[in-house]
């Protein structure tokens, strides 16, 4: 549903969920992953600003050499290292730089491997919601599909999925456009439970996997709309509080753009897949299939050396950026939704 989400009125995103005043101002989103020459945590440098260790000169020289390589030379070198050779030239350059940097830092500081090991799991969510071909500015989008795809960041595998359809309350009749776009039929939503009941089963699913208790995890989405728009509106419609475990998330579009250094126009789902040398698998605008493909992008980014980190959050009904300097933390243990007073 990613392209259709682009058409949603931006001013609706910042709808207030309570009468509380905004306590913090949004900070511009800074880089999530350090530049090639910067020192990651636990590196041989004494501080984040001290790059005097000789390893950084070696990395800088290697980066310069990689920058001068042709696409075919990059592909040959990646093949020699038994790394993925798919993707456009800039993606292959980033992959080779990340590999070399990690190897050098492992030799020097005995660091771990190139994958994200702060979160044990990343949970990908991509809602489908009621829609019309030309959504009026006051249209209330109701969630009609709740999918989740669970990534193990240590094994770099999709290990589990969840999917349920949801019965809309305000506009129970789906538009022909919505049915054609999502593949979700009127019968599917008529036979589904209302959102609060589905959310309870989502919470139970997360709890059964000990996320937020035994294992650290984070939510990941394709853009800000799923949490700041769809879940925000749905909780108001269903008269329940916004769930704490969904108040912070990884916006993969920001992570992708910062890591591969590409503009926002190149961060749509279809474009990200194409640039990484991947093809969409499944039915576009199926929430579960979209989530699986977003998960494939996340896995490729982890393999390429990106450390995915929470970069957006909700506060008092407002969408805010999370600066990369913010303390690292996982999502809290999920609990059953509470009713709003």
Can you walk me through this structure?
The chain has about 350 residues and is an alpha+beta fold. The chain has helices at about 1-5, 55-65, 70-80, 90-110, 175-180, 185-190, 195-210, 225-235, 250-260, 270-275, 285-305, and strands at about 120-125, 130, 145-150, 155-165, 215-220, 250, 310-315, 320. The protein folds into 2 domains: about 55-110, Orthogonal Bundle (Transcription Termination Factor Rho, Rna-binding Domain, Chain A, Domain 1), CATH 1.10.720.30; about 120-320, Nucleotidyltransferase, domain 5. The protein has 11 helices and 8 strands. Helix 2 packs antiparallel against helix 4 (about 90-110) and helix 3 crosses helix 4 (about 90-110). It is globular, with a radius of gyration of 21 Å. The relative contact order is 0.19. The model is unreliable at about 10-50 and about 110-115 (pLDDT under 50). Its cofactor is Mg(2+).
